[in-house]
Amino acid sequence: MSFVTYTNKVNIGVLGTGDVGKQLSKAFLTEGNPTMIGTRDVNKAEVVAFKTANPAISIGTFEETVKFADIVVLAVGGAIAQELVKSLASVLSGKVVIDAVNPITPGVPPKKFALQYFTEKNSSLMELLIEAAPEAHFVKAFNSVGNGLMYKPQLSERASMIVCGDSDEAKKSVQPLIEAFGWDFFDVGASTLAGPVEALCPLWCAIAFKTGKFNDFAFKIVTK
Amino acid sequence: MSFVTYTNKVNIGVLGTGDVGKQLSKAFLTEGNPTMIGTRDVNKAEVVAFKTANPAISIGTFEETVKFADIVVLAVGGAIAQELVKSLASVLSGKVVIDAVNPITPGVPPKKFALQYFTEKNSSLMELLIEAAPEAHFVKAFNSVGNGLMYKPQLSERASMIVCGDSDEAKKSVQPLIEAFGWDFFDVGASTLAGPVEALCPLWCAIAFKTGKFNDFAFKIVTK
Q1: B156 Cα to chain A: minimum distance (Å)
Q2: Locate the Pyrroline-5-carboxylate reductase catalytic N-terminal domain: which residues (chains A, B) (predicted)?
Q3: CB count in 10 Å sphere of residue A6
Q4: Considering CB atoms only, which of B120, B207, B219 is closest to A219?
């Protein structure tokens, strides 16, 4: 396979039409990338409304969207991510996948503002996704802040997008894209770090739930 | 009980004579607080050497140290913390305890730089400690950076000490102390957030292990 080098804009395929999928697909389009958003049902009223409001974004099935994409963005619910990725494993083979998903247990409310996860100790959703599609190149990113902050966050200073993944080339291929979105790119290492990276989401959400402010906080790695 | 209000310097009792215990006890003494460090064996060569090098720091048993302290600092190994706290539950009753400990599984090496934890999903060592001494007031702090950064870290900007705990008064009582150590105090909420706060340690350690730099990184919450 060849990794994206950004001599040209790349095709982005966003899987999932929730708030994160909508926000990221609009952002990628704004940055000049041909963008397709993938959904289980292209005729769903919500999807049709989104297409009407954003005519330059293509709509496709999940499989069409993966095939279209140079870089796939996974933005479905955590609970269905593993099964979906498994079903798409053959088309995902060799693709770079930005994994923006967190393992939030459906139907279980936060416990004093703490989101409850379904992942076991020393594991992560990202590692389950790698098992489900071992030939895709996952990069965990955009999982640690709310969707309102993902693109050009308006904060007092530049924050860090904390990423991890097993392919250095895949991480390199998404770095310029994350930087273009207004973030410092901070690679903490392999997919074994995905558990701690996914734990940033409940931390961020606790702050947002507690303060009622969903666009006001992000993490930064301060350096020497 | 009455919480500390900092009209006067308070007695600090540090449990544990490892790197974190030594570092924090010296820092509290530097800040003008009468400080005792607690150990299982006051005659251990390493403890005697520390006492010789730091004559102004008192040495005591764990129990003596808790009794001496207005604020207790727990800095023992994660694997023994629960049992120790349980054995001290009666003397810890009503005390504010800064919990600087992480649930690192002894004897299990990091997995591609990722520390392995013994805590179950949606749980934390802090919550186990609360079960072990339900009448103590735990505040999670100092667990997310290496000991070389805990006191007046030399970084490009002020970083955030991310804390949590169930007693707002206990958190308030340690806030000035953490601020005096050179940190922004950032309270994320209840002890249900301790798992995500404890996950900051493997994240920090992965950066330190990967770069070989143990005094160069800390977390900050960037705001609007």
Answers
A1: 5
A2: 12-103
A3: 13
A4: B219
- Taking any CB pair shorter than 8 Å as contact, residues of chain B touching chain A are 111-114, 116-122, 154-159, 162, 188-190, 192-193, 195-197, 199-200, 202-203, 206-207, 210, 213, 215-224
User: Distance of alpha carbon B224 from its chain centroid, rounded?
Assistant: 29
Judge whether residue B60 has pLDDT over 70. yes
**One-character DSSP codes across chain B:** -----SSS---EEEE--SHHHHHHHHHHHHTT--EEEEES-TT-HHHHHHHHH-TTSEEEEHHHHHHH-SEEEE-S-HHHHHHHHHHTHHHHTT-EEEE----BPTT---BTTB--B-PPTT--HHHHHHHHSTTSEEEE-S-SS-GGGSSS---SSPPEEEEE-S-HHHHHHHHHHHHHTT-EEEEEESGGGHHHHHTHHHHHHHHHHHH--SSSEEEEEEE-
* Residue B11, CA distances (Å) to B69, B162, B185 in order: 5, 23, 21
pLDDT, residue A9, reads 87
Q: Is residue B171 part of a domain?
A: yes
How many domains are contained in chain A? 1
A202 and B189: CB-CB below 8 Å? no
Residue B5: predicted pLDDT:
59
pLDDT digit string (tens) for B121-168? 999 999 999 999 999 999 999 999 999 999 999 999 999 999 999 999
Amino acid symbol at B167: S
Asked whether residue B161 is domain-assigned, the answer is yes
For A192, which of B111, B120, B216 is closest by C-beta distance? Answer: B111
Q: In chain A, what residues touch B199 (CB-CB under 8 Å)?
A: 195-196, 199-200, 203
Under an 8 A CB cutoff, do B220 and A223 touch?
A: no
* Distance from chain centroid for Cα A40: 18
Contacts of A121 in chain B (CB under 8 A): 117-121
Identify the domain containing residue B114 by its residue range. 12-211
* Residue B108 in domain: yes
Question: Which CATH number fits the domain that encloses residue A84?
Answer: 3.40.50.720
Residue A40 lies in a domain: yes
List the single residue in A with minimal CA-CA distance to B217: A223
Quick check: A13 pLDDT over 60? yes
